[in-house]
Specification:
This protein is an alpha+beta fold and 302 residues long. The chain is built from ten helices and eleven strands. The protein has three domains: 78 residues, Arc Repressor Mutant, subunit A; 112 residues, 3-Layer(aba) Sandwich (D-Maltodextrin-Binding Protein, domain 2), CATH 3.40.190; 82 residues, D-Maltodextrin-Binding Protein, domain 2, CATH 3.40.190. The strands form four sheets. The chain has a five-stranded mixed sheet with strand order 6-5-7-11-8, covered by helices on one side. The chain has a two-stranded antiparallel sheet with strand order 1-2. The protein has a two-stranded antiparallel sheet with strand order 3-4.
């Protein structure tokens, strides 16, 4: 038999019945009777020439053929549902999926997202945080905000924010360190980048002491550990302005070291949608304003 097309209602009936393993509950979801669902599924089975369910005294069980068909049908309906949800009151809602290093998300992006939504009410931004390890293609992301030097294979990178590192600690620790060499007596909290503290001490003009302190894979948790008195952390201070203003963290010295910046990256092979274009233009402009605001302070430190 030629199967030039399969009826959509029958596929919906199959997918709902497979999720509920019940024609009755599937009918309740689809707002039709149990007999109508059973009839649709039986018609689909006849058209395909296979049995999709075993009819049991109390419910249904998928056959091997039904198990093979279900993932494709469920994924297709899911994609259709997501696409249809993008239409609202006569407008098409664009979607932008962004992978963001957690420090940047909490320290800069989240507080500014309402401004983007006000400018672009029909663009949905979907944020996925990470520890600076991201796979744009594998995770289906439109953009990724990364920390580094701007060189990532197969990716375009647009500079966003300068992010010099400086030492921060709890107020009671700041009271007992009057000069950088005093940090030799403190626990120095570390990231996986082993050259950060040596380069900071070199910028301070002294030899780096032995590093004794816990290692972290996130500046957020490292800064929180410092705020709770676990030691002195080296973090991008521009991402912790709130903690510094509240006095939970103190920056005891003006010494900073540049180890990387924040960049907006995207796959070179990915065509830019209108929603992506709107987000890129907005975040680059907003970051430019932040950089301009930092410039006077950095000039004073030099």
């Amino acid at each position: 038999m030629t199967k030039s097309y399969l009826p959509l209602n029958a596929l919906r009936a199959f997918e709902a019945s497979a999720r509920h393993l019940s024609f009755t509950r599937a009918g309740m979801e689809l707002r039709v009777g149990q007999a109508a669902v059973s009839h649709q599924v039986k018609g689909l089975e006849e058209r395909l020439g296979v049995q999709l369910f075993r009819r049991l005294p109390r419910g249904l069980a998928l056959t091997d053929e039904g198990q093979a068909l279900l993932p494709t049908i469920a994924e297709s309906f899911g994609r259709m549902r997501m696409t249809l949800e993008q239409f609202e009151r006569g407008h098409f809602r664009g979607i932008v999926s962004v992978g963001v290093v957690g420090t940047f998300a909490t320290g800069w992006l989240i507080s500014r997202l309402p401004a983007f939504q006000e400018l672009h009410p029909f663009v949905d931004v979907r944020i996925q945080t990470n520890n600076n390890r991201v796979d744009l293609a594998g995770e289906g992301l439109d953009f990724a905000v990364r920390y580094g030097d701007g060189s990532w294979r197969s990716s375009d990178a647009v500079h966003l924010l300068r992010a010099p590192l400086s030492a921060v600690c709890a107020p009671h620790i700041a009271e007992r360190v009057s000069q950088p060499r005093d940090l030799a007596e403190e626990a120095l909290l570390r990231s996986y980048r082993t050259d950060e503290w040596p380069r900071w001490f070199a910028a301070a003009g002294i030899v780096c002491p032995p590093i004794k302190g816990a290692m972290f894979d996130s500046s957020i948790t490292m800064a929180e550990a410092a705020a709770q008195g676990a030691g002195v952390a080296l973090v991008p201070v521009a991402m912790f302005e709130r903690e510094l203003s509240l006095g939970r963290l103190v920056q005891p010295f003006d010494v900073t070291v540049a180890m990387g910046d924040y960049w907006l990256t995207s796959l070179k092979s990915k065509a830019e949608t209108d929603a992506m274009r709107a987000f890129r233009r907005w975040i680059v402009a907003a970051a430019g304003m932040s950089n301009a605001a930092q410039a006077p302070d950095q000039a004073l430190e030099r």
